[in-house]
C-alpha cells in the first residue's frame, strides 16, 4: 500500500474502533489492527536520528514508546516505570525487534520527579556517561516527564516527545497524526512543576495565586495554559464582584475548552461536556449580575431591581458557595458572614416574591392583612420566641433580618410549612433556632463583638442556611442545577 492508502485504511479502522463498546476488546483491536499500521506510517513519514541509548518513561499508553523505539533504533533502552506500569514493557516488546536491544528498568514512584532524575542519573554514570543518548518522557505521567526533563537538562541529553492528536471517542491517538519532536530547551518542561502548583492553588480556591503562575508561564515562553489562566482570573474577579471583567476571562476559557474537547486535546483538567455546560451557565450568571447592576428604573431602588430580576437566586447560591470555599480555607468568620447574607437574602426574596415588600422601605399596605392584626400577631410570636426578654414592638420602616422572619411567620408564609422536619418542630422552634445562630454571628469580631467563629459555630450557621434554602426552593426541580452552576469548577486530574 502507498502512504495515502495506509492513511485511508487507518481512518477506516478507527471508525471500526469507535463502534466497539467493550473496553478490553477495543484495546485489543487497537493493538492488533491500528498500532502496527500506525507504526508503518510513522516510519515512512519521519526519518529520525538514531541513538545508541534511549531512556523512556512508561505509563499506561504504549503507543508513543513503540513509535519512539522504532524510529530512534537504540541498542540500549532504559525504562522508567512504576510498580503499575512495569507490566506494559512486555506489550511494548511485541511491536519491536528486541533481540538486538538490551533492556534495563528502574522502578520509581509516579509522583516523585526527583526519584526519576536520580534513577536516570545513577544509570547514566554507571554507563560511563554515554554520549549518544536521548530521553523520551512521552509515555509516562507528567511528573515522570518532569523528572526526565530535569535529568536531560543537567546531563545535557537530547529530549524527544511524540506529539499527536487524540480521538475524543476512543481516547486514543489519531493514527497518522503522530510526529516526533525534539525539545530544544528541556528545562522548559519543568514549567509543569509550576503548573501543577497552580492547579493545586486553583483547587484550593486561591485563584489569585493560580492566575499569577499561569500568567508567568505564558509570558516566559513556556507553552501557555490560556484555559486555566482565564478560569483563574475569571473566578478571582467574580469573587471580587468585578462581573464585566470576570465574564470576559470566562468566555475566553469557554472557547478554549470547547476547542480542546472538539480536538480531543488533553489539557490536564479532566473536564468534559458537563463542565463546558456548567461554565456556559456561569457566564450567563455573571453577565446577568453585571447587567442588573447597570439597570436604572424610575421609582425603584437597586434592591428592588435586583429582587425582581432573574439574578437574585443565582446570587444567593453564589454567596452560599463562596461561603463554603472560605470554610474550606478555615476562614470561618468570613464564611459565617456569607452564610448570614444567604439567610438574609432568603428572607428578602420571600417577602418580595410573595408580598412585594422591600425590606429597605416596606409598604405594609400591600399585605393581605390588617396592620393592627398583623402587629398583634408579630408581638405574639416575639413573646413566644424571646420569652422573658420580650418587649412590645411596632412595624419598622426598615426590616432587619430576624424581624423579617418573624413577619413571615406572622403572615403564615409557606416557608415555614416547607421547613425540613416541620412536623416535629413549631414556627417558634424554627425562629428560636434562627435567632440563636444569628446571635453567634453578631458576636463575632467581624460583626459587632470580639468572639472568634469556630468550625462548629460555622457549621451550625450553615445548617440553618441549608434548611432555609431547602424550604425556600420547596422541591423545585431546578434547585439541583442551580446549585451545580453556583459551585466553581475544580480540576479532576
What's the SSE blueprint?
Blueprint: H1 3-18, H2 23-45, E1 53-57, H3 63-72, E2 76-81, H4 88-93, E3 102-107, H5 113-126, E4 133-136, H6 142-155, E5 158-163, E6 166-167, E7 172-173, E8 179-183, H7 191-203, H8 207-219, H9 226-239, H10 243-263, H11 273-294, H12 302-307, H13 312-328, H14 332-355, H15 371-386, H16 401-410, H17 414-417, H18 427-442, H19 455-473, H20 479-486
Rg over alpha carbons: 31 Å
Q: How do the strands of the widest beta sheet line up side by side? A: 3-2-1-4-5-8
Number of β-strand runs? 8
H-E order:
HHEHEHEHEHEEEEHHHHHHHHHHHHHH
Structural class: alpha/beta
Biggest sheet details:
6 strands, mixed
Distance between the termini: 41 Å
Taking all residues together, what is the mean pLDDT?
87
The tally of helices reads 20
Percent range for β-strand residues: 5-15%
| Uncertain stretches | none
The amount of helix comes to 55-70%
The overall number of domains is: 3
Amino acid at each position: 500500500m502507498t502512504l495515502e492508502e495506509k492513511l485511508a485504511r487507518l481512518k477506516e479502522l478507527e471508525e471500526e474502533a469507535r463502534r466497539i463498546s467493550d473496553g478490553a476488546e477495543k484495546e485489543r483491536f487497537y493493538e492488533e489492527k491500528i498500532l502496527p499500521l500506525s507504526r508503518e506510517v510513522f516510519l515512512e513519514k519521519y526519518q529520525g536520528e538514531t541513538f545508541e541509548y534511549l531512556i523512556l518513561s512508561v505509563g499506561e499508553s504504549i503507543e508513543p514508546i513503540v513509535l519512539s523505539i522504532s524510529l530512534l533504533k537504540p541498542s540500549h533502552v532504559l525504562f522508567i516505570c512504576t510498580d503499575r506500569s512495569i507490566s506494559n514493557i512486555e506489550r511494548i516488546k511485541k511491536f519491536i525487534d528486541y533481540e538486538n536491544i538490551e533492556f534495563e528498568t528502574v522502578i520509581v514512584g509516579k509522583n516523585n520527579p526527583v526519584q526519576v532524575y536520580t534513577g536516570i542519573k545513577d544509570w547514566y554514570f554507571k554507563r560511563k556517561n554515554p554520549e549518544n543518548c536521548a530521553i523520551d518522557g512521552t509515555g509516562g505521567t507528567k511528573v515522570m516527564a518532569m523528572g526526565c526533563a530535569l535529568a536531560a537538562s543537567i546531563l545535557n541529553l537530547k529530549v524527544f516527545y511524540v506529539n499527536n492528536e487524540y480521538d475524543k471517542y476512543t481516547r486514543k491517538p489519531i493514527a497518522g497524526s503522530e510526529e516526533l519532536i525534539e525539545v530544544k530547551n528541556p528545562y522548559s518542561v519543568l514549567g509543569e512543576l509550576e503548573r501543577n502548583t497552580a492547579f493545586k492553588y486553583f483547587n484550593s480556591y486561591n485563584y489569585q495565586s493560580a492566575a499569577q503562575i499561569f500568567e508567568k508561564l505564558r509570558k516566559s515562553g513556556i507553552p501557555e495554559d490560556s484555559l486555566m489562566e482565564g478560569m483563574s482570573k475569571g473566578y478571582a474577579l467574580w469573587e471580587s464582584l468585578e462581573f464585566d471583567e470576570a465574564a470576559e476571562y470566562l468566555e475566553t476559557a469557554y472557547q478554549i475548552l470547547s476547542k480542546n474537547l472538539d480536538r480531543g486535546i488533553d489539557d490536564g483538567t479532566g473536564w468534559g461536556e458537563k463542565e463546558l455546560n456548567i461554565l456556559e451557565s456561569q457566564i450567563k450568571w455573571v453577565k446577568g449580575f453585571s447587567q442588573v447592576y447597570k439597570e436604572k428604573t424610575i421609582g425603584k431602588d437597586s434592591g428592588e431591581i435586583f429582587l425582581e430580576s432573574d439574578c437574585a437566586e443565582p446570587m444567593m447560591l453564589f454567596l452560599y458557595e463562596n461561603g463554603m470555599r472560605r470554610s474550606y480555607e478555615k476562614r470561618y468568620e468570613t464564611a459565617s458572614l456569607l452564610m448570614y447574607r444567604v439567610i438574609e437574602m432568603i428572607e428578602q426574596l420571600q417577602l418580595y416574591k410573595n408580598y412585594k415588600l422591600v425590606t429597605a422601605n416596606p409598604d405594609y399596605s400591600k399585605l393581605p392583612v390588617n396592620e393592627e392584626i398583623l402587629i398583634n400577631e408579630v408581638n405574639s410570636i416575639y413573646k413566644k420566641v424571646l420569652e422573658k426578654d420580650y418587649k412590645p414592638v411596632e412595624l419598622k420602616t426598615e426590616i432587619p433580618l430576624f424581624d423579617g422572619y418573624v413577619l413571615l411567620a406572622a403572615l403564615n408564609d409557606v416557608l415555614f410549612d416547607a421547613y425540613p422536619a416541620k412536623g416535629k418542630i413549631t414556627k417558634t422552634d424554627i425562629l428560636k433556632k434562627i435567632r440563636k445562630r444569628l446571635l453567634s454571628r453578631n458576636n463575632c469580631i467581624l460583626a459587632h463583638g470580639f468572639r472568634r467563629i469556630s468550625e462548629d459555630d460555622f457549621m451550625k450557621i450553615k445548617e440553618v442556611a441549608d434548611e432555609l434554602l431547602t424550604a425556600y426552593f420547596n422541591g423545585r426541580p431546578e434547585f439541583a442545577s442551580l446549585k451545580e452552576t453556583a459551585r466553581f469548577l475544580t480540576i479532576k486530574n
